[in-house]
Amino acid sequence: MNSLLISNSVRFILLVLVQVLILNNINFLGFINPYFYVLFILLLPLNMSQYKVLFLSFLIGLCIDFFEDSGGINAAASVFIAFLRPSILKFSFGISYEHQTIRYYQTPVTQRFTYISILVLIHHFILFSLEIFNYSYIILILKKTLFSSIFTILLIVLITTLFQKRR
Fold first, then answer.
1. Where are the transmembrane segments (predicted)?
2. CATH code, 97
């Protein structure tokens, strides 16, 4: 339990630092920006209580909002995907999730990709909807959601694949 707390704390701090110091400075083509900190929520332990998942998701979103001065939109998007996480896990991993037998790095790539993609797309849609907050700009919201999601998903898949090979 103690090593789990330490590893999640280190992951939390590293992801916030990477997001704030490096990734927030990327604004490719004016609208593509990866939100890599979502990985923290994706990799939280499956047996963690939903209240803790929601709280930690709120906390990481709030930290990002603090540094971006974005008024809580990251916290809102993070809590939303944390709330949906059990349903998406069940959809992506099926019976393995229900029996709590999932080992993230031992699951098929397609299941991991589905899980990552759904949560990242939902997160980004909520984030950009709250950022723009005007549905007359729905095309811009969808464009930012799509392209930033692709960039974020590729980054998450790349990083998780690199760390998988070490284990």
1. 12-44, 73-93, 113-133, 145-163
2. 1.10.1760
